[in-house]
């Protein structure tokens, strides 16, 4: 009797595995991902069926339909707020394909402020919030109820009490540890705060398609974007990853309207309403800035193509910092071609893991990169989490995008692409200091590693589609 029951359960599992494999073959975005899921679901449904329920779904039609329907409307609204101005022909010629792909534009006259590490970033953000007169928009992937989180909470409550409208979005999975009491305290004070999810109805199986964006906009005038979330670890206060190395960016000028637009699209999906949208100031700086908002609702794989286009644009130098180096074939091929053009290609990655599987896969890709002539460095003082890219002597990107499949295809991301020699020089100085605190990876790192560690690297790479 027991044998019959067990046999029946196994049969049901295998049938479910086959059905899920059929779903994976039809719906998974890449052939590699479809093959990996299908093979596992057919041969080992006991081990892969439950992970597939959480990670395998590739469609969320409600958000996609609304995103595409409202994108042109939001662009027209943003255009109506902006002063007439256009970037020079050189900027449009070099990066016009990125602007066209994203339905975005370069805005001239931006004032930029490079914010290095958590202390500088949050001092600038809190100073801006404390000066807010009309509206504060806040969006983070992670908000913790710790020292920094409580400071953010109080700053927002103070602004509401001063008569300022405050809207907050946080990712429901990224901030899964955020207690209800934290949110309720903000709501009771008058802060409008919501978790983001691609499905309005709760779905415990939906772990993909997270909103990884970090946006703060104050009075429509000052905007912040970059790699830092709200938590003590981002101030370097939590070993063993401390000190935490990260970078953020403050923007003043018309490009802030595009930060508002990105926030407004997500806010409208969650609430059915639009947040206050305020007119930005005229540009008084020298930078040309494009806000690159990418995500799985786009018709193209915009994040991967964003990196590919920037890599192809490099002629003398391409420096990249990323905590997760798991490039897809297009990005890896672009990096190899840059080496053949004689470009100084460098990649800065961590020397210690925050996610062990991703770290192992990163180590294998680092080895492949070294063999291709790409210089790879491991940052030594602590964990490097910054997402910065420097092209030649005049172009720098700061944002939330990692070089991995999750950013390329599964997460909603945002960054600022800036063309300005003075700002690029600041980024060069910052990255030169980072590389000075790193050691260069050689082929020996992989070749001298124990056999089981090398095996673990190759096994980790099999999970590329969900890393």
UniProtKB/TrEMBL annotation:
One function term, GO molecular function aspect: cardiolipin synthase activity
SMART domains in alphabetical order: PLDc (SM00155)
Stored InterPro entries: Cardiolipin_synthase (IPR022924), PLD-like_dom (IPR025202), PLipase_D/transphosphatidylase (IPR001736)
Pfam families listed in its UniProt record: PLDc_2 (PF13091)
Biological process annotations from GO: cardiolipin biosynthetic process
Topology versus the membrane: Multi-pass membrane protein
Keywords: Cell membrane, Lipid biosynthesis, Lipid metabolism, Membrane, Phospholipid biosynthesis, Phospholipid metabolism, Repeat, Transferase, Transmembrane, Transmembrane helix
Segments forming domain PLD phosphodiesterase: 207-234, 380-407
SUPFAM superfamilies associated with the record: Phospholipase D/nuclease (SSF56024)
Keyword Translocase recorded: no
Transmembrane annotation, as ranges: 36-55
Enzyme Commission number, as recorded: 2.7.8.-
Superkingdom: Bacteria
Compartments where located: Cell membrane
Cellular component per GO, a single term: plasma membrane
Function: Catalyzes the reversible phosphatidyl group transfer from one phosphatidylglycerol molecule to another to form cardiolipin (CL) (diphosphatidylglycerol) and glycerol.
Stated name of the protein: Cardiolipin synthase
Organism annotation: Dyella japonica DSM 16301
């Amino acid at each position: 009797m027991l044998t019959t029951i067990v046999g029946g359960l196994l049969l049901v599992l295998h049938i479910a595995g086959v059905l899920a494999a059929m779903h994976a073959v039809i719906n998974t975005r890449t052939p590699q991902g479809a093959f990996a899921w299908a093979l596992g679901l057919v041969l080992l449904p006991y081990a892969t069926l439950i992970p597939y329920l959480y990670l395998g779904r590739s469609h969320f039609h409600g958000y996609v339909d609304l995103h595409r329907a409202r994108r042109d409307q939001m662009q027209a609204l943003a255009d109506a707020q902006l002063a007439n101005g256009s970037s020079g022909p050189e900027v449009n010629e070099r990066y016009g394909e990125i602007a066209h792909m994203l339905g975005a534009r370069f805005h001239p006259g931006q004032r930029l402020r490079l914010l290095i590490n958590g202390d500088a970033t949050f001092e600038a953000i809190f100073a801006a919030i404390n000066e807010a007169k009309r509206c504060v928009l806040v969006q983070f992937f992670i908000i913790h109820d710790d020292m920094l989180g409580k400071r953010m909470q109080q700053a927002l409550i103070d602004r509401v009490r001063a008569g300022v409208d405050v809207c907050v979005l946080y990712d429901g999975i990224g901030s899964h540890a955020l207690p209800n009491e934290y949110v309720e305290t903000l709501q009771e004070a008058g802060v409008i705060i919501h978790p983001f999810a691609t499905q309005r109805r709760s779905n415990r199986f939906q772990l993909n398609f997270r909103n990884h964006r970090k946006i703060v906009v104050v009075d429509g005038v000052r905007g912040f974007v970059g790699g830092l979330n709200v938590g003590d670890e981002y101030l370097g206060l939590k070993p063993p990853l401390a000190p935490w190395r990260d970078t953020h960016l403050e923007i003043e000028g018309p490009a802030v309207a595009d930060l508002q637009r990105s926030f407004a699209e997500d806010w409208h999906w969650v609430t059915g309403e639009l947040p206050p949208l305020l007119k930005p100031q005229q540009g008084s700086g020298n930078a040309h800035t494009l806000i690159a908002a990418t995500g799985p609702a786009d018709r193209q794989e915009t994040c991967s193509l964003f990196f590919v286009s920037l890599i192809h644009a490099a002629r003398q130098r391409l420096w990249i910092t990323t905590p997760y180096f798991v490039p897809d074939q297009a990005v890896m091929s672009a990096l190899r071609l840059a080496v053949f053009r004689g470009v100084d290609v460098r990649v800065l990655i961590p020397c210690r893991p925050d996610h062990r599987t991703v770290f192992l896969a990163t180590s294998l890709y680092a080895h492949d990169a070294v063999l291709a002539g790409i210089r790879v460095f491991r940052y030594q003082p602590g964990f490097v989490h910054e997402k910065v890219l420097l092209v030649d002597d005049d172009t720098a990107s700061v944002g939330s995008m990692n070089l991995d499949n999750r950013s390329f295809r599964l997460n909603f991301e945002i960054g600022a692409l800036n063309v300005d020699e003075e700002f690029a020089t600041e980024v060069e100085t910052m990255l030169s200091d980072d590389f000075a605190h790193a050691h260069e990876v050689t082929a020996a790192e992989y070749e001298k590693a124990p056999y089981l560690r090398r095996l673990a690297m190759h096994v980790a790479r099999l999970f590329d589609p969900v890393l």
